[in-house]
Amino acid sequence: MNIGDVSRESGVSTKMIRYYEEIGLIPAAHRTEAGYRTYSDKDVHQLRFIRRARDLGFSVTQLAELLTLWSDGHRASADVKRIARQHIAELEHKIQELRAMTDALKHLAEHCHGDHRPECPILEDLAGAVEVEARHMDLTRFGAGGVDPVRRKKEIH
Amino acid sequence: MNIGDVSRESGVSTKMIRYYEEIGLIPAAHRTEAGYRTYSDKDVHQLRFIRRARDLGFSVTQLAELLTLWSDGHRASADVKRIARQHIAELEHKIQELRAMTDALKHLAEHCHGDHRPECPILEDLAGAVEVEARHMDLTRFGAGGVDPVRRKKEIH
DNA sequence: TTAGGGCTTCCAACGGTCGGAAGGTCAAGC
DNA sequence: GCTTGACCTTCCGACCGTTGGAAGCCCTAA
């Protein structure tokens, strides 16, 4: 099987398969005389494993641990469970952060009239609630939409 | 004020201030004869605005829009609300994804004994539930923990 | 033999932030 | 005036995971 075949069968792009090989997550594939990578059904199976774990949000580092455990017939399921629990904790922490953001934003958005008038509690909060009056007086000349600077390698889309 | 002062007062690192200038999010600062950037209280104000918006998870692109609106005395609050609502939707979508991951993982972890034995529903699910038997028979030789490949620029920690 | 697709490697970009090197500048203390 | 140390400058790279593209070789069917 060539790399394109395993890619289709495993759902992992050829780019990523080569990358995983490069970082040592998967062993280097055998090569044909022409230098083509060749794969077996077992490799497809392993890449599917990787794909699923990635879909569950495991990092590549965690994935390496899981693969080692997967390959170890004498593993203790406690080790797997530990990795999973740790990942769950990370995910829940992330969720908490996002929740806090959305709650704060929703609260602000609810109090914004959302009409043609310029008054907006969202901007006022971002500017700093204490300084609302000052902002109205003399801070209206800011902005990124003005004269366009040089913009070397990156720019805002 | 030098860049270090604004950084301390705004909570935005000097690295990021230079970066924001480079991508055109903020205008290029004035320079002293020696080439040092100089800033005013208004710049501190603006950077605080940026800091708060970033803390709320707005992307730099969205930030550019918000800054433009902030600087526009004739803006309609509806525009700000639209950006906020869009961002809320993105955040909630992300939360949903993470929720789905944690739910799936929790379900698996609950059914894992977590003891010394190798049997583990977490790994079995990752390997593909249908092929559990096959895995036990002949797929135990996989793994990233084997012979360490060359590892050029990147490696797994 | 030619055309097309697949394969190879290498280089860069994305977003946002940080670390560090190499060198110039400024203030204080001697 | 000189040294010291904190600050500033630019430039380059790393992080993580993924994608895009270029340039060139290989394979197969027509």
* Oligomeric nature of the chains: homodimer
Overall number of domains of chain A: 2
Topology order of chain A in helix (H) and strand (E) letters? HHEEHHHHH
Give the largest interface pair and sizes.
Answer: A-B, 90 and 91 residues
What profile does the largest beta sheet of chain A have? 2 strands, antiparallel
Detailed description of the structure:
The structure is a homodimer of 157-residue chains. By secondary structure, chain A is an all-alpha fold. The first copy, chain A, folds into two domains: 3-59, Multidrug-efflux Transporter Regulator, Chain: A, Domain 2 (Orthogonal Bundle), CATH 1.10.1660; 86-138, no CATH class. Chain A has helices spanning 3-10, 14-22, 41-55, 60-71, 77-110, 121-127, 132-138, and strands at 30-31, 37-38. The first copy, chain A, has a two-stranded antiparallel ribbon with strand order 1-2. In chain A, strand 1 (30-31) and strand 2 (37-38) form a beta hairpin. In chain A, helix 1 (3-10) crosses helix 3 (41-55) and helix 4 runs antiparallel to helix 5 (77-110). The longest helix of chain A has 34 residues, at 77-110. Chain A is elongated. Residues 130-153 of chain A have low confidence and may be disordered. At the A-B interface, helix 3, helix 4, helix 5 and helix 6 of A face helix 3, helix 4, helix 5 and helix 6 of B. The first copy, chain A, binds a DNA duplex (30 and 30 nucleotides) through helix 2.
